[in-house]
């Protein structure tokens, strides 16, 4: 295994976990938050005949998911290189 | 040219393409058969995942469900896309690094136990076969309607086509066929939606049209729709729901189930690098979103179109005469999926919500009950006809619906056949089987699975919705937690994982069976399947998420009470976390 020093390996994994954790907070916020539980709070923001919560439920959450995955892939590939665990 | 001839041309041409691709990409080795030689570009792979994922349920049923339920059924939109976030971050890159062929293989190796592998095989087969039945049945219905043959014959045609390209091609054949199928299905879904969006809102992008102004009334489309349906006693389309706990858990079950379905996970073994596995998930979701962002527009617009067809002069005026009904109603009546009963014998079609709240208004108008029953599943298929679109659009929808059903069926069959030949036969029964023998076993198990699914599709046991819920429940409660713990915890051991999978699965099945009947046999349920009886208002469809939590909890408790996994297993976990070295996996 060419992971390098185990100290770095541990830091690499921590960095990954932090990134995942942050991303999943956003993931939960747009779907379970804005689209479902917090919808009544967003009711005052009108959008095309309905409210922002409805938009998040039918479109906004999906768009956020896409952005999240690409952000994660981009960021993680950077981290791979930074720690020297990327593939040649 | 007749509509029948147009349908034949569209469906025939699309099938010819699929079969040619399958022959061209014929698999040579077992590796080719299972994972397309590991050399598929992330965008190509993303497109194939898109076709793999979007089944008859997404293409045919989903918009109909949203049209009927409005906001409440947004759960399907979020649930079937949000799972990809979990896949991209929690499973796909590490399983790609692990570099084996199948999901049970990872579980067996990580939990150093043949029994764990066997439990995973069982979960996989049950989840996948139940799903295939739905696809075959969907393909059969689409064939019978568009090719004007009877349902059984339609099913047999579907089975033969799936057999040819899945059995001949394996993964490589399926990957490129599914790219073609993705193109067919997305074009078929989008074109009628664009036409309808322009008609109703003047906006050519359906996803934007949904939030635009309705041209005829000058109101926002959704306000117009709310007004029309509340006039007829239905709930507002955009109304909020009361039972938020259930909505959250149902969405979570669909998300976890999506991430745990083996035929999707297997796709991530086919990219060259770990980094590509991450990109693949992103691209897959882009291609899926093209349909999923259009679906809610199709739903609301079709619902509005249906209402204005029945009430051309507004909801305050009388509905249309039955004798003057449009042609599409006549044709769907033949299939029995639209039914009309003239309850008040006035020769008109009264379509409204038969509720107590609306009773006095119905009495005042001389209505004796709702007279038109429209099956939700026909909405997408009938959509072009409802909007009076040209015949070729109808032919296109036929080809698209079949592409969606067949591509998912083929992907599921591949997951089943690899579990049987690779995990069951090579992994347990006969480890010395030759590569040729393994390939033969894979093809035979595929053929058997097709035969079983076709037979069950021809004799539908009458519980399609429950079966889909069961497939997601099983994947969510059994496979996903085991995979995730296998990567993110070094402490979870064989005993913990097996007890976790079994209790998660058992708990989920038991909760479903209590309300739906044991093994779905009607009349054997202990409690009526109504919201008052559900524990904390959690529906049996949503229980998979709770099952997953049970699985996690049991696995951790049992693991901590028993010995640590051996050092080499902890090293295996360590190694799947780091991308470097993944290339080796392709070369053997």
TrEMBL record, chain A:
Query: Can you tell me which residues the record assigns to a coiled coil?
Result: none
Sodium symporter small subunit domain location, by residue? 10-86
Matching entries from InterPro entries are given as: Na_symporter_ssu
Q: Which domain of life is it from?
A: Bacteria
Q: Which sequence ranges are marked TM in the entry?
A: 20-42, 54-74
Question: Which keywords, in A-to-Z order, does the entry hold?
Answer: Membrane, Transmembrane, Transmembrane helix
Q: Which Pfam families match?
A: DUF4212
**The keyword Kinase appears for this protein:** no
Protein name as annotated: DUF4212 domain-containing protein
Q: From which source organism is this entry?
A: Marinobacter metalliresistant
TrEMBL record, chain B:
Spell out the subcellular localization from the entry: Membrane
> Where does the protein principally reside?
membrane
Topology in the lipid bilayer is annotated as: Multi-pass membrane protein
Q: Which UniProt keywords apply?
A: Cell membrane, Ion transport, Membrane, Sodium, Sodium transport, Symport, Transmembrane, Transmembrane helix, Transport
- InterPro entries reported for this sequence: Na/Glc_symporter_sf, Na/solute_symporter, Na/solute_symporter_CS, Na/solute_symporter_VC_2705, Sodium:Solute_Symporter
Superkingdom as given in the UniProt entry: Bacteria
Q: Which Pfam families match?
A: SSF
Query: What residues form the membrane-spanning segments?
Result: 6-25, 46-71, 77-95, 116-134, 146-167, 179-200, 247-269, 281-302, 392-416, 437-457, 463-483, 495-514, 534-558
PROSITE patterns, sorted: NA_SOLUT_SYMP_2, NA_SOLUT_SYMP_3
Q: Which PANTHER family match?
A: NA(+):SOLUTE SYMPORTER (SSF FAMILY), SODIUM/PROLINE SYMPORTER-RELATED
Q: Which family does it belong to?
A: Belongs to the sodium:solute symporter (SSF) (TC 2.A.21) family.
The record's listing under NCBIfam families reads:
Na_symport_lg (TIGR03648)
Name the record gives this protein: Cation acetate symporter
